[in-house]
Structure to design on (908 residues):
C-alpha cells in the first residue's frame, strides 16, 4: 500500500464516518470517538501545531499513555510532515535528555503534570525545547513557565485556523509520500545511548498490512491499548494496524484498571509480552487456591482434560468422542467463565512476543481455547518477521516468515532478515546503521537461532551473549545465558534471573522471587515474613528455589548442546531488579553486565565458594530520590546432573 | 506559585472543653482564612481531635464560641455544620465496610439529594436523572482520587491507604467549603503519604477548599500548611507560619520533651 497514515485516516473518515475509531473509558463510561470526529480533531491539532511553528521534517516528542488525543497528535504531526517520536512515559527525566538533544526537538506534547514536570526539568539541559503542550490540565493551572500550553487551547486555535484556511490541512496531507519518514522509535539498548530507529510510512504500513493479511484482520476487531505507545509493538498494534484495518482501539481508564477494562471490552485481537500472560495465570492460580473445594476440584479436573485435549482441538487435530464431550462440559463449566473473567471471551488472535514464553504458560492459554501464538520481530523490522499460523502454534519456536520476508542464518548462527519493513537507518548514526544493515539489504538481528525441520524459526539467545564455559568439568561447553534464565523464569515463583558463566568454569545465577507468588506460598505455610527482603532470605524459600534450579538442571542435562550450562550455585536477591535502578531495560530485559558490576561482591561470592555475602545497594525511588538497602544474602549450591549424551 | 488567601472564614474564640475534671481544651482561639491549609499539631493527648470535634459539633464546649462566615455559634450541631459546608474525615475511618467505593462516596451526597426514598426506590420522576447527576459528581471524585480500579470493590477489602482515600472522597462529595481532616496520613507508608499530600494540595488548589488538618508527621505539616496552630496539654502554645512555629521555643520544648 503506497499511502501514508493521515491518508488512511481520511479514507476511513470518508468511508465510515460514524464508525468508532477510538474509545476511552472516562468517568466510568466508555466514550467513543468516531472516524469523522477523529479526522476533525486531527485537523485542529495539526493546524494548531502549524500555527505554533512546527516545520515539515521536524521531530516532535509525544509522551504519555494511550490517550485518544495523543493518538490524534501523532496523526497531526504526520499530517504536517513532522516526525513524531514517542517516548516511554515512565522514563526518568535524564533518559529523555538524549532523544530530545539528538533530534533537536522544539515541540513536545505530553499527557499530564507528571510529564510536564519532567519536560521542564529536561529543558534546563535542552533549552531549545520551547513548546510544551499537555492533555490533562489537572494540577497545572498555576504553572506559568514560558512555552507551556494546554492541548485544549491548541485545538481551539487550530480549529479557528482551519475555518479560515479550509484547504490548508488537505494540501499538507497530500504533500507527504509513503517514502517519507513517519516516526522514530528510540530503542532502549542494553549499553550506550539509545538509538533512534527511523521508519517510513511505507515500511510501517507494509508490515502492518502483512500482519493483518496473515490473520485476516478486519475493521470489526477490538483492541485494548495498554502497553507504552513508545514501544513499537503497541504502536504497530494500536496505531499502524489500526489505521490499515480501521478497527477500534480502546484506551483503558488507567494502568490500574486494565484487567477490568479488558473484561469489559473483550478484545478480538490481543497482544502482550509473556509477563502479562504470566501474571494472569498467577492470579488465576492464586484465586483458585482460595476457592471452595468443589470449585477447586472442578477446576483441576477440567484443566487436566483441557491440557490433554485443548491444544489438539485448537490445532484442528482429530480428538476422540469422549474427550470431545468432556472438553465441551469443561468449556461450559470452567474454560468459558475463565476466558470471560480474563477478558478473552471474544479473542480470535492473541500474540505474545518480546521474550520466550514458558511451555506451561503457553499450553494453559491454548488449552482453555485462547488462540495464543508467537511472533518474531523487533523495532528495526517494524515487528512482523515471523508469525505462527493458526494451526502451528508452539512454545519453542517463533513461526514462519510472513509475506515479503526472507530469512537467512549466517555462519555464526545469526539470523539475517530482508523485508520491506526494515528501518531506514538509525538517526544520525551511520556507523551503527552500517553494522546492522549491510549493503546487500540484509538486516542483522544479532539473535542466534536456526530454522527447524518444520520451517519454523527458533531463537536461542543474543549472538553476543552466547558464550563458552572455560575450565572445570564442562570446559568448552556452550553457554546461552538467556536460555537458562528463561527456563528458570518459567517457574511461577521466579520473576527474574541473571545467569553468569561465560569464560568461567561454572554457571551461577542470581534470582528474584515473584513477591506475589512466593508471598502467597509462604502465607499458606504459615511462614511469617516482614517484607520482600526478609522473604527472599528465608531458608524455606531457598529450598523452594533450589528445587526449581535442580529441575532446570535435570532438563538441561537432556540437551546435547546446552548440558554444560547447568547451574551450580545460586542466590536470591534482596531487592527486585528495577528499570529505575538501571538493572533492567525499559522493556524489562536484564542488563547482565551492569548487574555484574553493581553486585560485584555477590558475583565474587558465588564464584568464591562463600555461603553468604553482605551487600548494600542504592535504590532510586520513582520520584527521583534515592535510599539504600542492605542485607546479608545466603548463597546456595545446586545439584547438577551428568549429561545424558556427551556434550558436543 | 501563589494562591490568594481570603478573609477569615472560620474562627474559634476562647474555647474551653472539660470532661468532668479533665480539661481537654483551655481557652483556645485561632482563625482559619479562606483557601488556606491550616494545620493543628501537638503531641499525643494535646486536644487536637477534641478541637476538631468542637468545630464539627460532636462535642459542645463549656465556654467560648465558634464563628463561621461571620455567624457566631455557642455550639455547633453536626447536621447544621454539614449543611453549612463543613465536611470531615475520620482518624479511624468511619466507612461502610460492606459497601462499594461508589456507594460510600455516594453517601456523602446525601444532603444534596432532593427526591424522596420512594421515588428513589422505584426510580421514577426526577429520581433517575438526579441519581445520574450525583453519580457523575462521584465519578469525578473517583477520577480525581485515582481510585477507578476499585469502584465496585467493597471498602473493607481495600488496603488502609486506599480506605483513607475513600474517606476523603466521601467528604469531597459534599462539595465542602471547609474540609476537616483528622490525621489523614496516620499509619501510612512514605509513598501513600506522598500521594495523600498531593491529593490534599490538589483539593486546595483545584476546588479552592479551605483545609484544616491534624497531623503528626511534622515533615508533612511543614511542607503543605500555610499556617500552623500548636496545642499542648489543651493549651495553645504556638500559632503562625511553619517557619515561625519551627523556631518557637515553647514548641521545641513540647516536642523534644523538656520538663514541664
Amino acid at each position: 500500500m503506497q499511502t501514508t497514515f493521515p491518508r488512511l485516516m481520511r479514507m476511513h473518515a470518508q468511508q465510515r464516518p460514524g464508525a468508532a475509531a477510538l474509545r476511552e473509558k472516562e468517568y466510568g463510561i466508555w466514550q467513543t470517538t468516531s472516524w469523522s470526529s477523529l479526522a476533525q480533531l486531527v485537523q485542529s491539532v495539526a493546524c494548531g501545531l502549524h500555527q505554533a511553528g512546527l516545520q515539515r521534517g521536524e521531530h516532535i516528542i509525544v509522551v504519555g499513555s494511550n490517550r485518544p488525543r495523543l493518538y490524534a497528535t501523532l496523526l497531526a504531526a504526520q499530517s504536517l510532515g513532522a516526525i513524531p517520536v514517542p517516548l516511554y512515559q515512565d522514563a526518568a527525566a535524564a533518559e529523555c535528555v538524549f532523544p530530545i538533544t539528538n533530534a533537536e526537538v522544539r515541540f513536545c506534547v505530553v499527557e499530564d503534570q507528571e510529564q510536564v514536570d519532567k519536560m521542564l526539568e529536561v529543558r534546563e539541559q535542552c533549552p531549545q525545547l520551547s513548546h510544551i503542550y499537555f492533555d490533562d490540565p489537572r494540577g497545572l493551572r498555576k504553572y506559568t513557565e514560558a512555552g507551556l500550553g494546554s492541548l485544549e487551547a491548541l485545538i481551539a486555535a487550530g480549529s479557528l485556523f482551519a475555518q479560515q484556511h479550509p484547504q490548508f490541512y488537505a494540501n499538507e496531507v497530500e504533500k507527504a509520500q509513503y517514502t517519507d519518514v513517519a516516526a522514530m522509535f528510540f530503542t532502549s539498548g542494553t549499553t550506550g545511548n539509545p538509538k533512534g530507529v527511523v521508519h517510513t510510512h511505507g515500511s510501517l504500513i507494509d508490515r502492518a498490512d502483512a500482519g493483518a493479511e496473515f490473520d485476516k484482520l478486519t475493521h470489526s476487531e477490538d483492541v485494548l491499548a495498554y502497553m507504552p505507545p513508545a514501544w513499537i509493538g503497541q504502536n504497530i498494534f494500536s496505531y499502524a494496524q489500526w489505521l490499515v484495518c480501521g478497527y477500534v482501539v480502546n484506551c483503558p481508564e488507567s494502568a490500574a484498571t486494565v484487567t477490568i477494562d479488558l473484561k469489559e471490552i473483550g478484545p478480538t485481537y490481543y497482544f502482550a509480552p509473556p509477563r502479562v500472560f504470566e501474571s494472569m495465570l498467577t492470579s488465576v492460580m492464586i484465586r483458585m487456591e482460595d476457592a471452595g473445594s468443589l470449585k477447586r476440584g472442578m477446576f483441576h479436573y477440567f484443566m487436566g482434560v483441557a491440557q490433554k485435549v485443548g491444544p489438539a482441538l485448537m490445532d484442528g487435530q482429530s480428538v476422540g468422542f469422549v474427550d470431545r464431550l468432556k472438553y465441551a462440559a469443561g468449556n461450559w463449566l470452567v474454560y468459558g467463565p475463565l476466558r470471560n473473567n480474563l477478558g478473552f471471551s471474544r479473542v480470535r488472535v492473541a500474540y505474545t512476543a518480546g521474550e520466550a514464553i514458558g511451555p506451561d504458560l503457553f499450553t494453559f492459554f491454548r488449552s482453555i481455547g485462547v488462540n495464543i501464538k508467537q511472533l518474531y520481530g523487533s523495532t528495526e523490522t517494524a515487528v512482523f518477521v515471523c508469525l505462527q499460523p493458526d494451526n502451528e502454534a508452539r512454545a519453542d519456536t517463533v513461526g514462519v516468515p510472513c509475506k515479503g520476508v526472507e530469512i537467512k542464518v549466517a555462519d555464526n548462527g545469526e539470523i539475517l532478515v530482508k523485508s520491506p519493513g526494515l528501518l531506514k537507518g538509525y538517526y544520525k548514526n551511520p556507523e551503527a546503521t552500517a553494522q546492522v544493515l549491510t549493503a546487500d539489504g540484509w538486516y542483522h538481528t544479532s539473535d542466534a537461532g536456526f530454522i527447524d525441520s518444520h520451517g519454523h524459526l527458533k531463537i536461542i539467545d543474543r549472538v553476543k551473549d552466547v558464550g563458552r564455559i572455560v575450565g572445570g568439568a564442562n570446559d568448552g561447553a556452550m553457554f546461552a545465558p538467556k536460555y537458562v534464565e528463561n527456563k528458570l523464569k518459567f517457574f511461577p515463583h521466579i520473576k527474574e534471573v541473571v545467569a553468569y558463566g561465560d569464560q568461567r568454569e561454572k554457571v551461577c545465577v542470581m534470582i528474584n522471587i515473584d513477591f506475589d507468588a512466593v508471598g502467597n506460598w509462604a502465607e499458606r505455610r504459615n511462614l511469617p515474613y516482614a517484607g520482600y527482603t526478609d522473604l527472599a532470605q528465608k531458608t524455606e524459600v531457598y529450598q523452594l528455589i533450589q528445587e526449581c534450579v535442580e529441575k532446570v538442571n535435570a532438563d538441561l542435562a537432556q540437551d546435547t548442546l546446552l548440558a554444560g550450562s547447568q547451574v551450580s550455585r545460586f542466590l536470591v536477591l534482596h531487592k527486585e531488579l528495577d528499570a529505575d535502578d538501571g538493572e533492567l531495560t525499559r522493556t524489562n530485559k536484564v542488563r547482565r553486565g551492569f548487574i555484574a558490576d553493581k553486585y560485584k561482591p555477590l558475583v565474587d561470592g558465588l564464584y568464591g565458594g562463600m555461603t553468604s555475602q553482605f551487600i548494600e545497594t542504592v535504590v532510586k525511588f520513582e520520584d527521583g530520590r534515592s535510599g539504600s538497602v542492605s542485607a546479608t544474602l545466603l548463597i546456595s549450591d545446586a545439584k547438577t546432573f551428568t549429561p545424558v549424551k556427551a556434550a558436543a | 506559585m501563589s494562591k490568594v488567601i481570603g478573609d477569615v472564614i472560620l474562627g474559634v474564640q476562647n474555647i474551653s472543653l472539660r470532661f468532668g475534671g479533665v480539661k481537654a481544651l483551655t481557652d483556645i482561639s485561632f482563625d482559619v482564612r479562606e483557601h488556606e491549609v491550616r494545620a493543628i499539631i501537638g503531641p499525643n493527648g494535646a486536644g487536637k481531635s477534641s478541637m476538631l470535634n468542637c468545630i464539627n459539633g460532636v462535642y459542645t464546649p463549656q465556654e467560648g464560641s465558634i464563628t463561621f462566615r461571620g455567624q457566631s455559634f455557642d455550639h455547633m450541631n453536626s447536621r447544621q455544620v454539614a449543611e453549612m459546608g463543613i465536611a470531615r474525615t475520620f482518624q479511624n475511618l468511619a466507612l461502610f465496610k460492606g459497601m462499594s467505593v461508589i456507594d460510600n462516596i455516594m453517601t456523602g451526597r446525601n444532603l444534596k439529594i432532593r427526591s424522596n426514598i420512594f421515588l428513589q426506590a422505584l426510580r421514577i420522576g426526577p429520581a433517575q436523572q438526579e441519581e445520574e447527576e450525583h453519580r457523575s459528581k462521584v465519578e469525578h471524585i473517583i477520577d480525581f482520587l485515582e481510585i477507578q480500579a476499585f469502584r465496585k470493590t467493597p471498602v473493607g477489602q481495600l488496603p488502609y491507604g486506599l480506605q483513607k482515600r475513600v474517606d476523603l472522597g466521601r467528604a469531597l462529595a459534599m462539595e465542602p467549603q471547609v474540609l476537616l481532616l483528622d490525621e489523614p496520613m496516620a499509619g501510612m507508608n512514605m509513598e501513600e503519604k506522598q500521594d495523600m499530600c498531593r491529593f490534599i494540595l490538589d483539593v486546595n488548589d483545584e476546588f479552592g477548599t479551605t483545609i484544616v488538618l491534624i497531623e503528626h508527621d511534622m515533615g508533612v505539616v511543614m511542607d503543605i500548611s500555610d499556617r500552623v496552630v500548636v496545642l499542648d496539654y489543651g493549651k495553645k502554645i504556638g500559632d503562625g507560619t511553619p517557619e515561625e512555629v519551627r523556631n518557637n521555643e515553647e514548641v521545641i520544648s513540647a516536642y523534644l520533651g523538656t520538663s514541664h
